[in-house]
Queue: 4 jobs
Job 1
Amino acid sequence: MQNGTSSDFYDGIRSASGAYKYYCNGQWLETSCGKTLNNQNPCTNQTAYTMQACTQGEVNQIFAAAKAAQKAWARTPLCKRAEALHRVAQLMREHAQPIADCMVKEIAKPSKDALSEVVRSADLVAYTAEEGVRALGENRLLTSDSFPGNTRNKLCMVAKVPLGVVLCIPPFNYPVNLAVSKIAPALMAGNAVVLKPPTQGAIAGVHLTQLFHKAGLPAGLMNLVTGKGSEIGDFLTQHPSVNCISFTGGSTGIAISKKASMVPLQMELGGKDVCIVCSDADLTLAAKHILKGGFSYSGQRCTAVKLVLADKKIADQLVSMLVPMVQGLKVGRPEDNADITPVISESSASFIEGLAQDAKQKGATFLTEYKREGNLIWPTLVDNVNPNMRIAWEEPFGPILPIIRVDGHEPAIQHCNASSLALQGCVFTQDINRAIEVSDAMETGTVQINAAPARGPDHFPFQGFRDSGIGSQGIKNSLEMMVKTKSTVINLPAPSYQMG
């Protein structure tokens, strides 16, 4: 992996004023209206980067380019599509550092984690190329005589064909990994892509798009639009040229699903991931995973531990282990690889503070001091939470972790299943029978046994129940949902013999 980049590799992606351009039909362009949009450095609340604010007319041009390019790409052999993705993966490894640097500035992701995300994403792209060749290269042949009353005079060739144009909308917290987890399967399946990155994380998206450009993809196949959601958000998701929407984010996804036309939807919409700690759990292991699961990237992960449901028999011991571990987390700047960095925005920090104040007013015990400076919130462990508190149900997306004490695992399961958010959960126990019993009873998309919730590895199925999503992700699942089935029936002459 190369940590630098050639001086001319990113030439053309910025205007004379320094604003980053959008990408349409193989060209980096400035918006005709002259409007730009800023994103903020979460550490300073000052402008980090400026980008184009695309108009609806430019969105139309982007979709027209995507539709035109997709026709030829659909006829491109699978092996050639795979070669293109392998070129992208190699460029990601060679030019990982500039993309990581963007994430440090615009989403306050610690340096080492930002670089790791890019490298992991390169692996995802390469794996998708290999899996796509295998999974999409297998088609079926059906014969009519397998159905009662038919002779062998029809042959049905069942093929997997592209959907068309896929709109990819990743979130701020993983603007590279959750972008390529959508883009790579879409392209491998023969679709064109329109990428709408989050405003916070958009420049990482610009740099990522340049990798696809440099990899030599046909013009119009990969496109990037930036702009205000209030002006182009609904226009994008309801555009008649959209044939699939892959979205990761929060409640906005529910609004999109209600407004979108009859197109396939792949949506991951957040979670209130519970951690059930049974009376026989290995508490050293549980504490380690709760710490990492609850506080890595300041808790700004859909799969973060959002609520600990601890058996009363071991709750005191678990808490005594967690407190010094939480107090030992390094709080500071992402450039210094601090464990806890500022959350994404002032509004996010204020929302977290509202949850903390509500819990305090209703009698929760703060095991570590709640402290906030701007967007930086110190890691906070809250005990004796009860179901009347907002934090027992709402997703904070920040470094605050509530603990509810329960009488056994059954009330813990009941609380888990009563939540509208059901992405992942985890259970800690040394009894495999109990582990499977709890897992079977938890109505969530994934249950981790003796480990914190996690999205990866990226080829594992990844899905949420209830308000946590529609459809399933993971490389193979994404490839399967990025295609549709087409049948071609060959009608043969009727056989000369008579059926008995």
Note: The two ends are 69 Å apart (CA to CA).
Job 2
Amino acid sequence: MKHPDQYRGRQVVVLGLAKSGVQVAKTLHKHGAVVTANDKKEREQCPEASELEALGISVVCGGHPDDLIHEDVALVVKNPGIPYTVAPVAKALELGIDVVTEVEIAYLLTHAPIIGITGSNGKTTTTTWIGKMLESAGLHPIVAGNIGTPLCQAAEDASTEEWLVAELSSFQLKGTQDFRPAIACLLNVAETHLDYHGSMEDYITSKAKLFANQHETDTAVINWDDPVCRKLIPDIRAKLFPFSLTEVLDMESVYVRPSYVRGQDDELVRSIVYRDSEGNERKIVDVHEIALPGRFNVGNALAAIAASIAAGAAPEALVQPLRTFRGVEHRLEYVEEKQGVAYYNNSKATNSKATIMALGALKAPIVLIAGGLDRGSDYMELVPFLKGKVKALVVMGQTKEKIAHVARLAGLSDIVVVDTEDSAAETLRTALKEASSLAVSGDVVLLSPACASWDMFKSYEERGRIFKEAVHTL
């Protein structure tokens, strides 16, 4: 697509009045485009409409009019979550109109180098961690994207002396054309969002767009242990900078090296090591020093280290953030201990892989609260991880019977299906009370749904906040 300046006087349609949609409408309007912002929600559900209209932006709420998209429209910018099957998007594509997400606009506007981070799990944790590492190294990060601040807003404010650190979803990346991060980081790929993408092939292709426009002078940070990530390597033109939990790699990389410390008892110590392009190794920290629990967070740490070093951070500057960063809300977040039972909020676990990671991170017996939106998964991959790890299960939402069935296959006998006509909040409170009654001192009650939240809640954040409030008032 063209630079936003080249849409001056031309008609642009922005679909969706979420935070990013409002910002991109303002941005394109400021650059001279004739912007129409559209949302299917009714006017009273679009509080942002008045703000946009005050700027001279046309706003249409309450549906998608048939004449919204026509041959004189030069560009459509859609909210990432809007499917490509929705009528105005399908019509735009039929007419040959560019359809992009806000990420594309931000890239064309910014003068700052971009670190783009994507993956099925761990994006927010890794993005935040990279921001803290770059701060520690004096490299001036601006953390934005799918994590909070709209990328367009951050892009226009960023200078060439700063790094734009952007969390990116597959939805956002699918709507890019020229987007080119200086450093691209792919954490992992698991089966998720198939209701949106339609197939794993489309999902993987969308993730891979992170690397599509990179040059040989750019850097691709990639998970060497993930077979899907490995398959993408032959098509990546950028300089490869892999990370691995399981292999000592013979290239510039970050990995875990096990070694024995000789003493009264030989002790196996696992250390995070950076290997430079000349083959020199430098230990950064021992794995046990990382503040965040769980093997998967060691993987997130490796990715953050690789991206930060690629951006110019000195390895020694990364030690303190590794030792002190304690995570992000709703990601295996410790809430409180009551009567010897520890409560954890992992509401961001919107797929089975994320729940499996959480189960592996906790050592105590677990009473698991799971269930939510049914996206067609069978959840069978949970079976081996429920055995011996989860002592009881409480399920709710559209997938409650599916997950209960999987738990029975895993040999669980304490299974509570919460099936009420109460509000979503009250249903979650009931699930928490059931879980608490099944837990004893020394156990963990873990909210880790393995499902998206939209069958009951507006977002995983809302689900997590209600859970935490309910824990505090038990």
Note: The mean pLDDT is 94.
Job 3
Amino acid sequence: MCSGKCAKCLGIALIPLAILCILANILLFFPGGKVASENGHISDEVWFFGGILGSGAVMIFPALVFLGMKNNDCCGCCGNESCGKRFANFSSIIFAAVGFVGAGYSFIISAVAINKGPKCGVITWNHALWDECTEPKDIIPWNLTLFSLLIIMGGVQAVLCAIQAINGLMGTIFGDCKCCGCCGGGDGLI
């Protein structure tokens, strides 16, 4: 399989995941699905924007690079003849690393948020006090569900970026598919 085709598939998968992560983080600003009566009810970890930045905005860059790799021809990338598929594959490794870090950030922030629990009327939080956390209403299932989704989606994004890093490394070392009649002839091997 061509590394460009694989990268395009991974890019297509990352875009909806990034959008869902952004939405999940935005929903966390509405504890229990309602407008917060005060910012004190919003968990501190929501303000770190793990879903908006880490698994969201940062993930858009690798996704777009991965999507664009299939469109690069054998003679160059971005219209520059001195740059070829191997360089495109190498640069995709860098963007995969950026995506991996972004997904990891979201994953860690979400795991910490689940461990600490939501802010509610209980001063000292621990899992034994879940029944006592009544304000805002439904805050516990709300936070657990959304932060768990961020953990799952961040983990999937990290795996997809790791796959692209391996794919890009293989494309850098071994080249990509054959191209016919490119750059004035030759066998077209990269």
Note: The chain has a mean pLDDT of 80.
Job 4
Amino acid sequence: MKKHLFPLFLLLLGVNAHAQQDFYAITGKDTQAIHFNDFRVIDATNGTSGEKVFTADSSSKIISQTRRGLVAEDKNSFNNAQATTIAALAYDSSNNNLVYIPMFSSNIYILNPQTKEITLVENNVVRVTSCDINSHITRMATGYDGNIYAVNNSGTQLLQISKKGGQYVVNDLGIIKDDASNGKNSFTTIETGFGGDMVADADNNFYIFAASGNVFKVSAKELKAKFVGKIAGIPDNYSVNGSAVNAQGKVVIASAKGAPLYEVDLATLQAKQLPGEQNLHIYDLASKYFVNDRVSSNSNTLTNLDIYPTRVDEHFVNVHVNNTKVKGNIKLNVFDMSGKNVMSETLSVKDGSLDQKVYFRGLINGAYIVSIADESGKVILNKKILITK
């Protein structure tokens, strides 16, 4: 029953030596109840397991953020970094860390996959009890703004985990309620809305995949969950326990019940089975990708004109032009989300070609719109970026 309702922990990554580690998962043992086994890398294209990053039997070094030192945890309790009930995971690509919360605990853990060091973030904001299914944290994802978000089963707590001054801070953003149009497909009831996982889009909305296969779009500003539809193309008894966006913008889903991975087109909610392992027990998935990350806000955008990456952690973006219709000097403007112009730069295009790095100086972390205008002043490209340096 628990596996039907709740996710597990898995790390998704390519299995060959050249693959980038950007897809993660929590896997569990082949048991009827939730039983954490490891964080591992998985190839989301081939549906196969890769490196095990950290296991239930690994030696652990836990550092308390509050007490600023090493702590010893009771391995027989729900409040430890290797608890059997780990079921919610996010990948913080800005710091290359895995962030997770045991399902029956209020503790938040930050795992460095390279050093295996774990930071314990104790907090009084998360109200979780082992006997209250409604309170269990089962969905986590990194938002496009760089913060980590988590939601409990019943939607009564939407948590934001941010890093300020080197310390992790937890805020409760409030209660998520059903949109009036949801009808019988309620976000806040066990049969239709509990369990599963969540992904984020480039506008910092969230898509929550319930264990039932229902999908809800959640606005963090309005705190409403709108029923989008039910996934088609998966077996009737498939419990959706993990979800993450792949490099192609599709959502990969996984089950804790021992099943293959599926790739879901979010526009149609049609799923197709991925090749590879057929008996994976996955409680949760996480990746560095976002829905609609590369979609321009300008429908008249010229071809062969781009700004990348959209997630900036190295102080610059690349501006690429390969279009003879673009000539002379072009103007690059950067606007914050209030519409204020915070940076301008003139770039020179020769023979319709340009490949240039544009460095951001003095811009704080956050979301911005980068706009490029031609010599006449006509905007030919808008691109939303997130600075996380």
Note: The chain is about 0% helix and 45% strand.
